[in-house]
Each structure stands twice: as C-alpha cells, then as structure tokens.
Amino acid sequence: NGQTNAEVLQHELTMLDVMTANRDPLIWARARGGDVKVDDSNVPQPVPVVSNAGGGSKSSNAQKEGRTTYLDAQEAVKHFAIAKGFKIELYADESRFPQLANPVQMQFDPKGRLWVACWPDYPKLEPGKPIRDSLLIFEDDGHGHAKSVKEFAKTPNPLGFEFWNNGVIVTRQSELLHLKDTNGDDKADTSTIMLQGLDTSDTHHGANNLIYGPDGGIYWQSGVFMMHNHEHPWGPSLQTSASAMYRFDPRRFTIAMHAANAPNPHGTSFDSWGYHYATDGTGGRAYQVRPERKGFKMYELLKKEVRPVTAHTIVSSTHFPEAMQGDIFICNVIGFLGIKHYHLTRDAEKGTVWGEPAGDELTVKSPNADGTESEEKSRGFLMSGDKNFRPSCAVFAPDGSLYVSDWHNVIIGHMQHNVRDPNRDHTHGRIYRITALDRPLQKPVAIAGRPVPALLENLKSPVDGIRHRTHLELSGRDSKEVIAETQKWIKQFDPAKKEDAHGLLEALWIHEQQNVRNGALMEQLLKSPELHARNAAQTAQQLWFNAEASTKGGIITAAPEEKIKVTIPAHLPQKDHENYRLGAEIFHREAHCATCHQPSGDGLPNVYPPLKGSPWVTGSDERLTKLALQGLWGKIEVNGTTFDTAKGVPPMTPFAALLNDKELAAVLTYVRNSWGNQAPAVAPETVTHVRAATKNRSTFWTPEELLEAHPLEK
To answer: How many whole angstroms separate alpha carbon 578 and alpha carbon 681?
Structure first.
C-alpha cells in the first residue's frame, strides 16, 4: 500500500519520547530514595502495518519468500536431502522450547553444552514490548536430542557471542558485553562493558558471528551504512564506516579494522594451521584473510555459486570421513536453501587456500502455496525443499556431529518488507543434528575445570573444536601459571621435526592469547620444516610487528586506505578533470561503487552488471542519474548477459541519501569515461534537476519505466 519504514519508525520515535518522559519522574524519585509507578497509558499506539509478503512486494519474489503456512519441525525433516552417508534429525524446535525463536549463532562451551543466541525481536525491539532476545543454554539427553534449556541472559540484538575468561562476550546493540555466572546457576549475574560504539542502525549489518582467534583476538564482521565510534582507554576513539572484519583484543582493549569485506559480511573461521576465512552475506563470496603489506587483506577463496550467505564452518571431526577434513561448509538462505560443500586445497609454499565444489547431487520436493510440488536440484551437502528453512549457523559438537540452526522465517529480506511486517516470524526456530552413518561418534574430551597440564595435552588433538574449547578454558586461568606450564610442555617438541611443529605453534598461540611475546619461539617456527607452521608464525609476526606498528598507547588504528592512482583519459576536456578525480575517489570508497562493480568496471558474473561498454552507463545521462538516485530493480541485459533480481541478483543501491549533487555528478562522469567508455560529463545541475523532479519517488526504478522515458541507445 506504499507504506514506508520512515512512516512507521518515525512514529515509534514519538512513542519512545513519551515513554522517556514517563520515566523521568521515576528517575528523580529513585534519586531521592523513593519510587513512582510508571504509567504508559498515554503512549500512542503503533502504526498498523499491512503485510506485502506473498507477492505484494515490488522488490521481492517467490524464490526469496517462504510460505505463511509453516511445516511442523518433524514434517520439515522429510523435506531434506543430504549427502550420501549422513542422516539429519531434529534436536530442538519451538514446539518444545518456545524460547528457541530466530536462532542466529551457536557455540559449544568447554563443558560441552550448546549455547544459542536467539533474536526474536529482529529487526529491533518494538516500543513498549518486553525484550525477548536472549542467550540460551541447552542440555541434551545423551541421545542427540535437547532435554532442557536455560536462559543465561536477555541481550538485545545478539548477533554474535564467544566464550572468554570464564564468561561470554556478546553483542548488545551498541555495546560488547562480558557476562559471567559467578554462583553456578547458569544465569548471568555480572556484566562488564568491554567496548562501546558499535553502530546498529541497520541491525543485521551489526557486529556478528564472534570468534576467538588463535592469536587471542575476538573477531567479528560488520557491514555497510554504519558509523562505528569505538571508545577505549588509550586515546581518541576509533571512528570508522568501513564494511569489514574487526579485531578486538580483550586483554589490551585494543580495536582494529582488520580487513575490508563488503557489503554485508557474515561468517568468520580459522582452521588447524590458523588459516583465516571470511564470507560475505549479500554477495555470497568467500575469502581467505592473509597478511598484506602492513595489515591484512581478503583474497578470493572459491568461485561463488549462491547467495546470500549467513555463516560457514571448517570440517574438523573424527566422526566425519577423512576425505572431508579441512573442507568448508557454507550456509545459504535464498534460492538454494541449505549447505554448500567445497574441498579446500592448501598450498603451504604460497600460504594460499583454494576451494572447489564438492558434495552430492541433491534433489528436493518443494511444497507450493497452491498445494502442488516443485522439484529442485543442486550439488552440496544439505538442501531443503521447505521454503522457510534458513540455515543461520553450523557448528561441530564435542561428539563430532554437526549442528545446524534454522532461523525459519517466511521473510528473509529486510528492505523488501516493512520492518514491522506482521508476517515477519518471531516464534519459530529449529536446530538439527547431522551424523555420519556407520561411523563412531567422536570421543568427548574433558576440558572444563581440568588442570593446566591436562589442558595442554588436549592441544595435541587433531580436532579443531577440542583445541578451540581448550584455549577458551585457558583464557580464564592465571596467565603466569599458563605460561610457566607451557614452557615446560614445549620441551617435548623438537623444532627440527616436522611432526612437532603443530605443538610448538599451539604454544606460540598461547603466548599471543596471554599477551606474552616469545620471540625465540617465533623464530623457531619461522624456520620450521613444516611450511604451514611457518605461515602461521608469519601471521603472528605480522600482528606483533607490522599491524601493531601504529600502536599509540595501546590503540591499533584503522588500516590505511590505499591511494587510488588516477589517470585522466586523453579525450576528457580540461574543465572536467577535477570532477573526474573526485568521481574516482568516490567510486573507490568503501561500500560504494567498486565494491560491487569492481575497480575494473567488469562487475561480477551473474551478480553485478559491468559498467565497461554498457549503454546504460554511456547513454542518456538523465536515465543514468535516475537509477543512481533511486536505484534499479528488475531484469536487464548488459553486453549480452541478463541480470535478474527475481533470481537473486541484488538491486542497484539508491545513492540519493548518500551523495550530494556534485558528488553524484562526479562519479557518473568517472564511470562514463573510464575503461574505454567515452561519453559527455554529467553536470551537477543535471543531478539537481533530476533529483527535484523525482523527489516524491520512494521505490526503485524498473528497467521498463526508465526505457519507456529514455529508450536504450543503439
């Protein structure tokens, strides 16, 4: 019905203003030692929202949307197809555990218990309603099914969490909290703000999927359209709008922009040799994060097949076949609903990793709204025909089985539907458990409460999860004891023996985690006969001596931006040179044009159209200005290739609110005259005119609308 988020959310600001005023007397009363009852009967009612799910959205489609009729969780199991040699069963669902709604991340703690971050208040808490977002702890029955659940804490917008120092670090809107249970009742009773200034204006782009790195840093990623302002004890705050991976050191309270990744990155992991991986949600791309110059940079890991990606995990389990160890599983939530499988090959000499598609050919039956069924096929590890299946996380359990969380929602897009669309589901959530047939489960290893020498012996395990949870346990022990015992433990390893390299590497990582530099140990590993260990030591060296070279009083500053070399094309008149330079700078800004269309102007195959040689770029300047201002949604053909938003291609981002008239004219001039393109410059006056003429437009342009007014040039 044309209703916008602005109408709904601006009214909610009014509601919040009234609620704030209602609480002012309470604050004064408490300050005087008294009390006052808050009365919110004067708060305006929220704006009613009409759902556009089910075909009412101009920027959505049946492929993205699920069904408003939800399948029972046990029934949904029947709609899975899984790789040969595996089976999938239901571990927990909303019918038995109503708290399990919209799970977004899972982790197993050192006690072997499954923790789940649930986000039923997504996209954000409604005024006047109680907080439902929470961290849950599940106990199982010993046979692969949940027996009970406890709520550890309420925490709004819990996009990510990780265990550390006898507690858990979790996002709470603009804050990073360290929560602890000090009396053993599995309830958080202490809360310490570790970091502030996390932007949450676009909530699902916020800090997500926290992971404790082998170097002792807490890593997360955050997307575009955000402005973070990280305050810390060491000097001026770190202000950044970069869509990127970030690294926070909880012992030193330092924060860094680790490596750029855009536009909406989700998913971070490490493998047994410390190779680092990241995925991007919107684009679906996967990367290896490697040392580069004075910092770190993301390099293509594999040729992407699907999007959007929510998370990934590295296969490490004695319960899974040996041939799969070290591979990557990638969760996807539109079109292909399931987990893709890629075999990773690690080149020790170059320190690089590359992935190729793996898995089985899978076939599912998808129930349609009219009662019919559609057959879908794809290669991978797991696939569902239930259109509401949205795998949000995958993690290996202490017994070696794989747990998969299901956000489970008819609506997956945030911009295609109103923030308060009544069909956004806030009650469903499932967790599934995958086991290998005819293979023994992994033998559990005692971690919680074990003495330090015993914990160090755990680090000989080939299983990443066992070693990771052991490091988490060590993070809460006395540093002097941990380092002293580690010095004793490494005496059994010979630096000249390749088979001893991993033990020495684990010791180096312990020193990093405890904030104790051991130069001699690093030098041994830099000369190790095991090249993977050398690469890991070089990463530690990069962190200690290069990435932290800009440390001033403890704060790691943001990575320096690479300067763009601008060559003015010979055909461009002198009067347009300044605009061209400005356009080049804007084009290469983080999360602007180059992010999608690439610095080369070639775009990405089947995802982002090329700008090079495109009549959409070099033709009518008014048509180009319109689509740049309000964006573009629909099927277009560029240089013989069709790009169709109905098949998962992202729409063109509207830049009306991001760039002024001069800036937009400059960047359009740049793209019209780069990579061999030659077209007249766009004047700021043209942008001013078009902006005024289209000021009442609140939706994307369609190709048909633009071509009717401005036919494509021959």
So the answer is: 11
Angle subtended at Cα 78 by Cα 333 and Cα 394, rounded to the nearest 5 degrees: 40
Mean pLDDT of 449-457: 98
Q: What CA–CA distance (Å, rounded) separates 152 from 179?
A: 9
Confidence check: pLDDT of 174 > 90? yes
Residue type, 411: I
Q: What is the pLDDT of residue 242?
A: 86
Sign of the alpha-carbon dihedral angle for 544, 545, 546, 552: positive
Give CA–CA dist 297/276, Å, rounded. 11
Average pLDDT, the chain: 92
Q: Are 56 and 399 in contact (CB under 8 A)?
A: no
Q: What confidence tier does 605 reach under pLDDT thresholds 50, 70, 90?
A: confident
The residues with which 280 forms a beta bridge, in sequence order, are 265
> Using one digit for the tens of pLDDT, what is the confidence trace for 96-109?
999 999 999 999 99
The DSSP bridge partners found for residue 38 are none
Is residue 354 predicted with pLDDT exceeding 90?
A: yes
For residues 198 and 171, the answer to whether their CB atoms sit within 8 Å is: yes
3-class secondary structure per residue, 254-296: EEEEEEECCCCEEEEEECCCCCEEEEECCCCCEEEEEEECCEE
Coil, strand or helix: which one is 57?
A: coil
pLDDT at 594: 87
> Is residue 101 within 8 Å of residue 118, measured between CB atoms?
yes
pTM, rounded to two decimals: 0.84
Select from 265, 189, 252, 182 the least CA-distant residue to 218. Answer: 252
The span from the CA of 109 to the CA of 469, in Å, is 7
CA–CA distance, 387 with 68 (Å, rounded to integer): 10
Sheet with 286-292, edge to edge strand ranges: 265-270, 276-280, 286-292, 295-300
From CA 608, how far away is CA 268, in angstroms rounded? 24
